[in-house]
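Protein record

Derive tokens from sequence
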Amino acid sequence: MTQPLQTVKGTKDILPHETPRWRFVESRAQDVLARYGYREIRTPIYEATELFARGIGETTDIVGKEMFSFDDRGGRHVTLRPENTAGVVRAYIQHKLYTQPAPQKYWYFGPMFRAENVQAGRQRQFHQLGVECLAAPDPCWDAESIAMAAHFLAELGLKPLDAWQLQVNSVGCDGCRPAYRDALQLFLRSCQADLCPDCRVRTERNPLRVLDCKVPACRSQLHQAPLVDTAWCNDCRQAFAQVEEFLTAAGVPFTHNPRLVRGLDYYSRTVFEFIACGDRLGAQSTLCAGGRYDALVADLGGPASPAVGWALGVERLLLVLGTELPGAQPPVAVLVTPPGTPFSETFRLACSLRSWGLSVEMAPGGKLERQFKLAERLGVPFALVVGEAELAAGEVILKNLTTRSQQRVLISRDALRAALTSSLQEVQ
């Protein structure tokens, strides 16, 4: 017997009983983000590899270890997108969206791909909800972006300090960060023997990446590392103070974590993470993260366009939310056809009811007992019995499966909707 095929490691089917939860999250996102003036953008799931090498940074783990890259049939080197900020910025430049009124605000929702270890909430094909606010130099846009993420989580029932904690920091700018980089590198060289092999390489190539390492031995060495806020220039210090001021005004609780950095090279000044409370995500507890990236648009060939954004892992969000989300909505009624009644009439009626906006299921015919059992198994509140006598009179029997009461109802849009609405109120 041929062995059945399975999903590829790191990928996962999203089955019909799960998709309503995904739609719930996406619909809430659409609603909240629209209130802040964000519009949806959809970019290809693969791009030129150079885009990610230049945008994310060649010294990052993503570019160095985690990308799915290949040559297409035309000999072009392409990569399945590991994140979407670079793709959005590419579209912003390519289509000259920077000529439109600033700031330009976009959101996206879709699959990303990284060859990383599979664990709770982390797959090699995973999904992100993300936002990008471009041509936005003022710190107020940092604060708005963070407040919007907090608002979205609250709309899902995830409250601050109970479900998540917000940590913010600034990694400085091109003017002040080099001095901090040198001081951090000097410190890391003094404890090379106690760092993991990756961090020994990072010490020379990109020392700030060591601060983002999750290896316990490396983290234990960082308690004595110099802090980035000691190297801030006056402009960075003032910008961070404004972000804190705006978040306080918005009522968003936060903690300044001076050791917080992000794993991508394009960040400058503000960075932030929403950390999930509890242990649902294990050691990888980041729920949503982002920051400011003032040079990325120019680095990729566009005009200077300071920007800020964030991304949220949908699989991880669903783990934190748990199972208490709207599930699939069952049909409101099942059409039951007594023996001897032409099933074609039931089929015709089902089509009419659906065109009227009602959700119905057809029982397969046969014994009435079996048809009612189907209604019970589907969890629907009503059965519509369509016999020959009822059809001749232009009626159906509306049977309340909870109270066992029943009534005759004319087969019309208004009559059926009124009867179902009234009966639903009785059930509730």
In short: The chain has a mean pLDDT of 88. The two ends are 51 Å apart (CA to CA). The CA atoms of residues 89 and 286 lie 24 Å apart.
